[in-house]
Amino acid sequence: MNFMNHNEAYDDDYLQDILSSVKTIAMVGASPDKTKFSYGVLRVLSETGYDMIPVNPKPNLHEIRNLKVYPNLKAIDRPVDMVEVFRKSEDLYNVTEDAIAINAKVIWAQIGVIDHNAAKLAEKAGLKVVMNRCPKIELFRPFWKPRLDLKI
Q1: What is the DSSP letter of 36?
Q2: Which helix (H) or strand (E) holds 66?
Q3: CATH number listed for the domain at residues 23-139
Q4: d(Cα 111, Cα 98) in Å, to the nearest integer?
Q5: Which of 20, 45, 49, 122 has its CA 20 to 30 Å from the CA of residue 145?
Q6: pLDDT tens, N- to C-terminus, the chain (152 residues)
Q7: What pTM was estimated for this model as a whole?
Q8: Which DSSP letter does residue 70 get?
Q9: Which strands make up the sheet holding 24-28, listed edge to edge?
């Protein structure tokens, strides 16, 4: 099996294909704190038309931006296309195991989040992998074509 070299730049078509095909995104490490980067990314992706599912294990956290918060990926009650990871690199492997268990199609690790063993695990299971990138930033790169089928 050929594995991607995640140290190299991703092909624009690869990123565009992911961002134009996924609809439901579970964000592991979503924060209710408006000053956190994850909050801004959640807001923009939600406003762009993605079905965002915040994941955060804090016991008294029930909603972020009027979206129901789930304690973990396995607790989510509907199919998930992509798992976006706002956690430390050392957490990525366990999150990837859960992403595989819920039949996600993509694991996307945020800027600074890298684990090549997690990437290989995901690729062996048939998932597409992006690491050390931000989908919010990628959405606004020149290759991006708007998803005109979505209501804003």
Answers
A1: S
A2: none
A3: 3.40.50.720
A4: 20
A5: 122
A6: 778 899 888 998 899 899 999 999 999 999 999 999 999 999 999 999 999 999 999 999 999 999 999 999 999 999 999 999 999 999 999 999 999 999 999 999 999 999 999 999 999 999 999 999 999 888 877 655 555 555 55
A7: 0.91
A8: B
A9: 51-55, 24-28, 82-85, 106-109, 128-130
For residues 115 and 90, the answer to whether their CB atoms sit within 8 Å is: yes
Closest CA to 25 of 86, 89, 115: 86
- Using a 10 angstrom Cβ sphere, with 0-12 exposed, 13-18 middle and 19 or more buried, the burial of residue 77 is exposed
Nearest in space to 51 (alpha carbons), one of 75, 76, 22 = 22
Query: What does the block give as tokens for 37?
Result: 């980067």
State the DSSP H helix or E strand holding residue 85, giving kind and residue range, or none if neither.
Answer: strand 82-85
Amino acid at 122: A
pLDDT at position 149, please? 57
Domain boundaries, the chain: 23-139
